[in-house]
Each structure stands twice: as C-alpha cells, then as structure tokens.
Amino acid sequence: MTGRFVRLAETERQQVTLRIDGVTVRALLGDTLMVAVLAAGGHLRDSEFGDGHRAGFCLMAACQDCWVWTAAGERLRACSTLVSEGLDISTRQPEATWSDRA
Amino acid sequence: MVGPRVIIVGAGPAGVRCAEALVAAGIRPTVIDENRRDGGQIYRRQPDNFTRSYATLYGTEASRAAANHRCFDELRGRIDYLPETLVWNISEGHVYALRDSRLVELPFDALILCTGATDRLMPVKGWNLAGTYSLGGAQVALKAQACAIGRQVIFMGSGPLLYLVAAQYLKAGAGVAAVLDTSPWRLRLAALPKLLAMPRALFNGIKLTLALRRAGVPMLSGIEPLEITGSAQDGVNGLSFRDARGEVRRLACDAVAIGYHLRPETQLADLARCEFQFNPTSRQWLPRIDAQGRSSVAGVYLAGDGARLLGADAAEAAGKIAALAVLEDFGYPFKAETVAELRRKLATLTRFAQGLMQSFPWPAGQAARLSDDTVVCRCEAVTAGELRRVVAQTGAREANRAKAFSRVGMGRCQGRYCGHAAAEIIAHAAEVPIEQVGRLRGQAPVKPLPIGIAEDGA
ipTM of this complex > 0.90? Predict the structure, then answer.
C-alpha cells in the first residue's frame, strides 16, 4: 500500500533523506520519524507477540508502541523524534550480543 | 533569604500558569517537561518550520493557546527549564530524571505535578491492528504534523474530544467516515443543566456537531463497538458495531481513532506516595487533593488534568491555585481573594465537567461483553480470555496480582491503555465491586529507560 498517513498541509518544507531498514525514504524537515515512515508505507514495525504489523498508537510518548533503533543500537520513540538528514533507522531491534565471560 | 526549591513537572497549561505565579512572587522554579516544547498536549506547538496560524491550529481556543505560549516565552529567563527531560522516579524529596541519556537528581522542597492525561481506552476486538490510534493521537498527528491518520477515518468512543477531533479533521480536509458515540443522546439532554455552567463551551460543542452534520458525516450515538476488521498484514479495513436499534452494521475505513474521555497520568503522584481515592462517577482512582491542590504528602501539590479531569481552562486555574498554596505554605505573601476567585472558577468548570461525564460515561459494561479472543493488552497481545482464566484459576481479584499472573499491565505502556478495562474485566469475572480490584501501582521507572544511562556528575 502507499502511505498510511495523509499529508494535509505544510508540504512546502525542506526535504530530508533518511534510511529505514536499508531503504531510502524522503521526508520533510520537521517530520517525526513516525510520520516519515507512515507517509511512505503502511506500518512501522512488527509486534513481537505475533499479532501483525503495528503503526503506532498514542503519538504522545505514552504507549511506547513505536520504538525503532539507530544503527548504533539506540532506541528511539518514532512519535517524538524528529527526522534528520542521513538518519539510519532499523525497525527491528538489533540482536543483543553479550560478551562471553564464562 | 534562600527561597524554597520548587520543581514543576509538566509545561502544559497547569505547569505554565503555576510557574508564572511562582515567578511573580520572586521564586525561580525548575520546570521539567518531557516534550520538546511547552504547551502540553492541548496547546502542543508545531515544529518551528511549520506555518499554520493559531486560528488554524487551535480554532476557538486560539487566543488561549497563544496566551499560554506567550506567557511561557516571557518566563524563560526567570525559570530553569528542562525540556525533553523524563521524570522517572520521585523518592525522599528528590526528583530523578533522564536528560540527554544522563541521570539527573534534583532535590525539592515543593513539587507541583502537572502531568496531564492521556486517552482512556476500552479495548475492542481488532484494536491491535495497524491503523487504530488513540483519539488524542489522531489529534496530535494533525496538530503537530499536519497529517491525517488515514484516508477514511472512523472516530469512535465517547466524550467531547470525539466531536472536536472529527471536526478538526473535516476542516483540515481529511476523510471522516463516521463519528460513532457509545453514549446515548438522552444523556446529553439530562446533563444540560450542568453543561449550561459553561455556555460558551456548550455552544462551541454544538457548533462542531452541526459542522459534521452539515458535511454529511454519519453520526450515531448509543452504539456498541463489535470489531475493528482488517488483516495483520495490511491493518484496518473496517469497523462493525451494533447501532442503537440493535442492528449490526459495518463501515469501511482505513483508520480508527478511539477514546473514551481521559485518564490522569498519576504514576509520579503514586511514587511520591500520595493517597488516592476511588471516584465512583468516572470509575477511576484519583489522587486525593484539597481545594488548593495539596496532596496528602507535605510539599507535593497536584494540578491540571493529572489530578482532576476538568480541561485546559481549569488546568490554568488549578496551576495558579497550587502555586498560591506553595506561597502560603512557605510563608510568602499571597492574595486570599485571588484564591477565592480561582476556587469559584474551578467550581463552575467542575460542574461543567460533571455534565460532560454524565453525557459521555465510561462504557464499563462493554468490558464484560468483550469476546475471549479480544486483545486487552496491546503491548503483549494478552486476551480478555487469558485474563478471565487467570481470575478463575488463581483467584486473583486484585489488579496487581492479576497483572503478575496474566502480564496485563506489565508491557511497554505499563497499563496506561489496558489498566482500566482490565480492572472492569477482573471485577466482572470475580464478581466483586470495581473499587475492590484497586488500581495498578505506579512503578519506577514510570516509562522505560535505556539500559546504558550515565549518572550526572559521577
């Protein structure tokens, strides 16, 4: 499907390019990560409990349903993080690697 | 004289007016806010490079929004402002916050919690599908990002926000498929005497519904939600419900915004060890406060929707009245007549809010009718059937105990969106009054923290 979110105004903003799961996405300066993702596609992440795609819920940093990760492993709330040029986001949690001290 | 160390949590209307009154008395409060900008949810500011006017963004409340923003802008040099800072614990006179991935510990003599509210949710089968949003979330998408949550949006639930957000979507050019209210019409008529306490607000509300009506938006009241339909892959594609006459109907849509009025954000009050009491009208637990916002704990004050769900105008008054309580308690001069005037204003707004509560009640009865396969906890996809099984098999009839066995309330949102419905399900399954189920205890951290945070100044 095309984007889930529909832009109704404020479309004359400067463009920003970011990468989401390795795919280049064009967004607008001032977009939240959630808007950048959902203006381009239908969902934000997969539920880790097997009940399908998720696309955020509360948009006010309360439900935590919109976590995404930077390449460095930092967790971001997509609803309350603004896009920036060159941002590289993974919608899947990076594998945790534990040093083996046994 | 060294003044008291005063911390305000929240920069919505309550926090802003509280800070203003403290600054006027010569105190320099610290204002901590999780958002990037002041305004809270109701007067949320759009990003700097957006150009929509106050009238476009806030409608009839444009001048109030502008006044709040201006007030806060003028306070900036006279307060210590910590935006994008999450208060995650309160313990023994200290606030613990997370700022720039660092832990900040701030002592206080007076703490005013202006933590606001979020949507109050009743689950419906399929509400975990992509494309279902909280009503407030749908409004944030429009207000802060100039986006609609879908092409054809159904607004479902109850409360004044239902009509407000639907009308705002309509005005902004979004597709509004229907407005479905679970409350029957007659309740609004019965509540009219109380609603007339605020004629302007009532008039504005009626105008919104007329605008929707004129645009031909189907508006139904007294409905019972049945299922949000769609697929795990593509998300929402429709909604089925039973109308007031008992007929099952289905409407197509690609997004649903749901909300049943609001619930206060009380986790910090809980961690500060404030007492709570059950409010039978709204069927929720609220922190105990006196007429000036003093909690049961000395030095801890509560104002705004985080304490009493009375709306933005009342939040401004409550923020100011709490500031005056701080001044009184710490020996500063204050005007008793100002307190009396604010109390009168709050009394009027309280009467209006009671009218809204009577018009748009929390649909408690729906919880018992949710099918066993309905997801109650969106975070971890735990169903109503699983929660009922836990109640039946373990005998758990207290919210925290049932949470421990079922995990309902233990996920990412920490019970914010499932807690009230879960309590209703437990009460019904265990055949006990809702107040006996109790409430989910606030736990630190009140929101998830990253594992690798550094201690400030360590």
Answer: yes
